[in-house]
Amino acid sequence: MVIQNGPGIDAAINAAVEPLAAAISSFIFYSVRVGSAELPLIVLWLISGATFFTLYFGFINLRGFGHALRLVLGGSKQSHQPGEVSHFQALATAVSGTVGIGNIGGVAIVISIGGPGATFWLIVAGLLGMSTKFTECIAGVKYRRINPDGTVSGGPMYYLEAALRERGLPFLAKPLGAFYAFAIVVGCLGIGNMFQSNQAFNQFIFMTGGDSSAAAGKGWLFGLALAVLVGVVIIGGLRSIARVTSKLVPFMSLAYVGLALLIVAINFERLPWAVGAIFSEAFSPQATTGGFLGVMILGFQRAAFSNEAGLGSAAIAHSAVRTSQPATEGFVGLLEPFIDTVVICTLTALVILTTIYEPALAGEGVQGVELTSRAFASTLSWSALPLSFIAMLFAFSTMISWSYYGVKGWTYLLGEGRNKELIFKAVFCAFGALGCTMELDAVLDFSDALVFLIALPNILGLYLLAPVLKRELAGYSAMLSENLTRND
Hints:
Elements: H1 7-28, E1 31-34, E2 37-40, H2 41-56, H3 60-63, H4 65-72, H5 87-98, H6 101-114, H7 117-142, E3 145-146, E4 152-153, H8 156-166, H9 170-207, H10 219-234, H11 238-266, H12 271-280, H13 291-307, H14 313-318, H15 326-333, H16 335-354, H17 368-379, H18 384-414, H19 418-434, H20 441-453, H21 455-487
Antiparallel strand pairs: 1-2, 3-4
Helix pairs in contact: 1-20, 2-7, 2-21, 4-15, 5-11, 5-16, 5-18, 6-13, 6-16, 6-17, 7-12, 7-13, 7-15, 7-16, 7-21, 8-9, 8-21, 9-18, 9-19, 9-20, 10-18, 10-19, 11-16, 11-18, 18-19
């Protein structure tokens, strides 16, 4: 991180938060040894849930893909349905919250450690995660609340509360919902805000000359400008956020995909080797020190951390869709891990593998965004600047989406009200500005751990609601069949 002020405040805050952050992190990221590999239990929890929902809903991630595209591209009329945003806008807002620096840097780390084979398991985990997102989004819409002013409040805190009440555990309902809401508030201020603004500033420094840049040492000014931009977008609520993300997400995603495809096309002669290595080394016991299981775990972990399937955060945005059929947003939601992980993360891997990848890279200490930037620049020397600009857009879009997640957690705890929302938005913007000027590693570790901790109650709630959601899907499928018969 870039430090802009004296170490006193940073050190004091870190010292105060570090013990709690360490305790939660050691619990949530606790690993068990499987052979020579380490398996974090949170990854096992996420992948187990994704596998269960894939089987329980009959591979909905595959057979529902075409219907999902039809819904997003306007296959249904929504203008008079309850809700705030269209299917496409809800998807764009959720995607903007997951497509971030990790798609550029996180994949590079996995490949540098685990080799090409980790990409195979990343794709598998992304496909499985589509089923989890499907489940989360149905639940989000089914148990959402329509407020008197027409706005919507939904997400895991609401369907967790409903699930526990329906299962005869009302004494746990509100506390567990409140815990989720608290964790999403803290998480949005840390990894969804401060970390993103800090990374955006680092990319700006790179674009303007690196350490010799005139902007170096002026994180406060960049943070202030960024806070103003974020504030202008989020002050209008979800409709304003959705208007921006529905334009920003297609632009930044297509720009990155287009640049990546260009790099791969130029290095086409290495593509057969790259694809072959992805498949062959996925099952190779020599791929890493962890062997076959080590490669699998690395790929699963990167996918789970990238698309956030199982955390429930995206269901907050999807809950506000204009629809009277909860199942429709389940279909739309399953596209999210496909875009984030199967498309963008896989393309990042192919860029690295078709350009500069060699096993010795793991020992050079070149990882993350630096490795991806080197891969792009090795073919197109000018590509580092647009890549940095795209990374800045990724960070900005993540901030505005996570601000909405935080608002809904805040109002769940304190009650609905515009003044309460404005207070939180002001705090959110202030934290975003601080992220460019302070090194608060312990705070970020704490928020990161809390965000993954909420996967435990979230998936548990989805297990409890699975029969209800399956009936919801069956009813929607029957309605589609009936409409098709009438049209024939």
